[in-house]
């Protein structure tokens, strides 16, 4: 089920697929979905919810998997991948494509006022705290502390946002 606020802007060149499993894709008021963004319900029954006034930039791919919650006023730069799902692969006597998906690690949660830099990959089980900044080309997994700045692969905390 696709629910798009009449006050959201979705580029005609974005691709949002309908779910065959009943997952909801919710795009709230003030959201901007740029050209060449793809939202694909696959890998699990999770919903994708994009909070008010968030911006998803060109080339970003969001899989529903075990669920994606994007807060309000979130900026996601170009060419990011949000993948809250993992293929099973451990049984070498079966082809990977035949093994389905691993058990959920909890989906992806991105709190309010977060900036994700270009080319980041965000994996299942990730929780990004309010006010975080994630540098470009980072591999993101686990729990990120609020108002912290992270970058790299492996991801490291490199600072924090300060008050003026």
Structure description:
With 164 residues, the chain is mainly beta. It contains no helices and 21 strands. The strands form 3 sheets. Strands 2-5-8-11-14-17-20-21 form an 8-stranded mixed β-sheet, with no helix packed on it. Strands 1-4-7-10-13-16-19 form a 7-stranded parallel β-sheet, with no helix packed on it. The mean pLDDT is 96.
List keywords for this structure.
mainly beta, 164 residues, single chain, 0% helix, eight-stranded mixed β-sheet, seven-stranded parallel β-sheet, 21 strands, 34% strand
Give a topology summary.
Blueprint: E1 2-4, E2 9-10, E3 15-16, E4 25-27, E5 32-33, E6 38-40, E7 48-50, E8 55-56, E9 61-63, E10 68-70, E11 75-76, E12 81-83, E13 108-110, E14 115-116, E15 121-123, E16 127-128, E17 133-134, E18 139-140, E19 143-144, E20 148-151, E21 156-160
Parallel strand pairs: 1-4, 2-5, 3-6, 4-7, 5-8, 6-9, 7-10, 8-11, 9-12, 10-13, 11-14, 12-15, 13-16, 14-17, 15-18, 16-19, 17-20
Antiparallel strand pairs: 20-21
